[in-house]
Design a protein that fits this description.
alpha/beta; 7-stranded mixed beta sheet; Rossmann fold; two-stranded antiparallel ribbon; binds 5-O-phosphono-beta-D-ribofuranosylamine; 2 domains; single chain
């Protein structure tokens, strides 16, 4: 089985990267991580990649003349490594149009909210301030507009009484660690394809991602 050659972009601790590295250890996983790039040389996630024996590029975006110059540097490194598909895992910089177009429909991101609700930063603080009962995370193809693009998979996560930003972020992050390997598997295996702005599920099988962490339909609500 030819595995999809994946490059992962990170900026920080790399817990999503770790979940992808773990998933890709399975012999039947349809993707392999062949390069990890960070725009912050001190990112903790780089060490996770090194320990797993994955080549890394530690670039510093502050040294680049422009956003596009920096993205061209990443693009060159990805192509040099034979990368076929790019996964953003906590990559905290807006990508240039050049990069988004160069990797169009071969570039995905995970966002800690149920898009199209709460794009951007501080998702958990805003969700708590609005008093929502359900939040979650979304894996989507990347477009030039921030946190927009065809949705591949979502996991719903409940907001619990007494939650603060930290407890909610931790619950959502646990869901991210399940959702991202699941979503990458769908795309890398060809079970999900994108055409224009539409996602098509080409094969049956596997749980519907949007209900992974939701109560079952018809389940009684908890006692008041
Ligand atoms: C995750 O919550 C991800 O959704 C967001 O940034 C965070 C990255 O965490 N884009 P980690 O670096 O993967 O631990």
């Amino acid at each position: 089985m030819a595995r999809l050659r994946v490059g992962v972009l990170i900026s920080g601790r790399g817990s999503n990267l770790a979940s992808l590295i773990e998933a890709a250890k399975a012999p039947d996983y349809p993707a392999e991580i062949v390069l990890v790039i960070s725009n912050r040389p001190q990112a903790l996630g780089l060490e996770k990649a090194r320990v797993a024996g994955i080549p890394v590029c530690a670039f510093d975006h502050k040294l680049a003349a422009s956003r596009e110059d920096f993205d061209r540097q990443m693009d060159a490194a990805l192509r040099e490594a034979g990368v076929e598909f790019v996964v953003m895992a906590g990559y905290m910089r807006v990508l240039s149009d050049f990069f988004v177009n160069a990797w169009y429909n071969r570039l995905i991101n995970i966002h800690p909210a149920l898009l199209p609700s709460y794009p951007g930063l501080d998702t958990h603080r805003r969700a708590l301030a609005d008093g929502v009962c359900i939040t979650g995370c979304t894996v989507h193809f990347v477009r030039s507009e921030v946190d927009a693009g065809p949705i591949i998979a979502q996991a719903a996560v409940p907001v619990m009484p007494g939650d603060d930003e930290d407890t909610l972020a931790a619950r959502v992050l646990s869901a991210e660690h399940v959702l991202y390997p699941f979503a990458l598997r769908l795309v890398a295996s060809g079970a999900v394809t994108v055409s224009g702005e539409t996602i098509t599920r080409t094969t049956a099988g596997g749980p519907a991602p949007a209900i992974l962490f939701s109560p079952s339909p018809g389940e009684a609500p908890p006692p008041a």
